[in-house]
Write a structure and sequence with these properties.
About 85% of the residues lie in helices and about 0% in strands. Helix 2 packs parallel to helix 8, helix 3 runs antiparallel to helix 8 and helix 6 packs parallel to helix 10. The mean pLDDT is about 85.
Length: about 240
């Protein structure tokens, strides 16, 4: 009964979150464009599926992903093994990013555009090679980023110093990277922080900061997502330089 109540609360929360989107689309379609919504039945069915999917996703995060992320971080902190903690951080960042649907979509689109623009040969093998190389590069960068974030928590480094140094590196690489890869690199930093990566990485940071004496979860537990957004831009620009 308690689980059913939590599921209903998640459903109401999803409806509330989607309501502004529905209002905006309805206003511009009916008031500005003054046209009826095409295929009303399909739109309503799709909206229902979105609400149910979002509800189940959020409910699953609260039940499974957040607790397991925090518990594993605390277990690694108790174990006291820096090697295994870093290995876990890299594996978590790499595996969640490779599985990220948004990254897969962007990599495939970037491969199509690169082929049409003459950057790579316009055939299936080259497009798949480019897309897979981009995905692996971004996944590798996120794995390194999570390791860096975990090291920051362990050492207590101020986050703004690391972020400033990272963006200086982005600015320098932008001056040398091929122009055709810069936009893809900048977008890669955004698509990595999506539905799969964010919950687990956030839980890892909070759980680790909660387990280490002298660390504040609010001050030290967050910030891993910033690293996961920053390093992919640098790695993808280097990837473009290698391809050139």
């Amino acid at each position: 009964m308690r689980a059913l109540g939590a599921l209903l609360r998640a459903l109401l929360s999803s409806l509330r979150d989607l309501l502004p989107i529905i209002v905006v689309i309805g206003f511009f379609q009916l008031v500005v464009l003054q046209e009826p919504l095409p295929q009303m039945g399909a739109i309503l069915s799709g909206l229902l599926l979105v609400v149910l999917g979002l509800t189940l996703f959020v409910f699953g995060l609260e039940m499974g992903l957040f607790p397991i992320g925090e518990s594993m971080a605390k277990a690694f902190a108790r174990k006291g093994s820096i090697f295994w903690l870093m290995t876990f951080a890299f594996g978590l960042g790499f595996s969640t990013t490779v599985a990220e649907p948004a990254l897969t979509a962007v990599a495939a689109e970037a491969a199509e555009v690169a082929a049409e623009g003459g950057v790579i040969a316009n055939n299936q093998m080259q497009r798949e090679s480019y897309a897979n190389g981009l995905r692996l590069t971004v996944a590798l960068s996120v794995g390194v980023a999570i390791m860096l974030g975990v090291l920051r928590i362990l050492k207590g480094w101020p986050i703004h110093y690391v972020i400033i140094a990272g963006y200086l590196g982005v600015m320098v690489l932008t001056s040398f990277a091929p122009k055709w890869i810069i936009g893809v690199a900048y977008d890669s930093g955004g698509v990595t922080t999506s539905t799969i990566t964010v919950p687990l990485v956030t839980a890892l940071g909070v759980g680790l900061a909660s387990s280490i004496k002298g660390r504040n979860p609010m001050l030290d537990g967050f910030g891993l997502i910033a690293f996961a957004s920053l390093l992919p831009m640098m790695f993808v620009m280097v990837y473009g330089m290698v391809l050139s």
